[in-house]
Specification:
The chain has 283 residues and is mainly α. The chain contains ten helices and two strands, in the order E-E-H-H-H-H-H-H-H-H-H-H.
């Protein structure tokens, strides 16, 4: 397996994770830019939304990761919380951080939130696909131990001298001895989610061809991604505990499904279009 450090410049380590997160933002921006004019949004909507999502997403993702792993990773060295280039971002923290930031910025600009949601939903899935490839190369969000042909063996230590996530977790879980220097092979579940996100992006773009889904792509994204993530989580091997038999992400997925179903059932934009359509039919 490749080293998660793509480039070492003195004491600065540039990881593949950061490279692919950046590529994800770039790909998402390109897709936003293409969709903005089609949805009647101003030209500045794409770069503004991308920047807002980037700042809010990274802050939220890192904050949640630090809170979840404070005692294990950061209590002895709090400044490590700022070292996002070492990896350690939680998608749902990033999602909530980006969502709040984008909503606040869109309302300040007077942009319609339903149109912003339609514009952003496929881009979210596309950017997340790149991010999961970064996770695969970085060694985070890894799968369960496997002796099958698809098993991936991560190095115990990275080239910058840090212990890799799989080795750290496998030591704690007793998968390998406490003094082990090599990880047990794991299934590349990150790539499964990456492919799932690409398929989700394609599905949302296909739904967008029909007027019936205008104003409803974002809750559709929430529903479909929550279902994808809920299933993928069963293959994850990086959790130290599963309260109630489920991971914390799976519990969040269940909440997202509820929100998405309620949103799709009650959508002011879709109801107004439906009424307009019925009025036209009667006329």
């Amino acid at each position: 397996m490749t080293d998660p450090v793509a480039l070492q410049i003195g004491r600065l380590s540039i990881r593949w994770y950061g490279v692919f997160v950046a590529l994800g933002f770039l790909a998402g921006y390109k897709l936003l830019h293409r969709r903005a004019a089609r949805l009647g949004l101003p030209a500045e909507a794409a770069p503004d939304i991308t920047l807002a999502a980037m700042v809010g997403g990274i802050v939220g993702a890192r904050l949640l990761y630090v809170l979840q792993n404070w005692s294990a990773e950061f209590s002895a060295n709090p400044l490590e919380a700022l070292a996002i280039w070492h990896g350690g971002l939680v998608f749902y923290g990033g999602f909530l951080g980006a969502l709040v930031t984008v909503i606040v910025w869109s309302r300040r600009q007077g942009w319609p939130l339903l149109a912003i949601g339609d514009m952003a939903a496929p881009a979210l899935a596309l950017g997340h696909a790149f991010g999961r490839v970064g996770c695969f190369l970085n060694g985070c969000c890894f799968g369960r131990v496997t002796d099958g042909p698809l098993g991936v063996s991560y190095p115990g230590l990275t080239s910058d001298g840090l212990m890799n996530g799989p080795l750290y977790v496998q030591r704690l879980l007793g998968v390998v001895p406490p003094d082990a220097l090599a990880c047990a092979p794991v299934f590349p579940i990150q790539l499964v989610e990456a492919l799932g996100n690409l398929a989700l992006c394609g599905a949302l773009l296909r739904l967008d061809r029909g007027a019936a889904w205008r104003g409803r792509l974002f809750p559709a994204y929430l529903l479909l991604y929550a279902a994808l993530r809920f299933l993928v989580e069963f293959g994850r091997g990086d959790y130290l505990s599963r309260p109630g038999g489920l991971t914390s992400a799976q519990w969040f997925c269940l909440a997202l499904v509820l929100v998405a179903v309620v949103w799709l059932a009650w959508n002011p934009g879709s109801r107004s279009r439906l009424k307009a359509g019925k009025t036209a039919e009667r006329a």
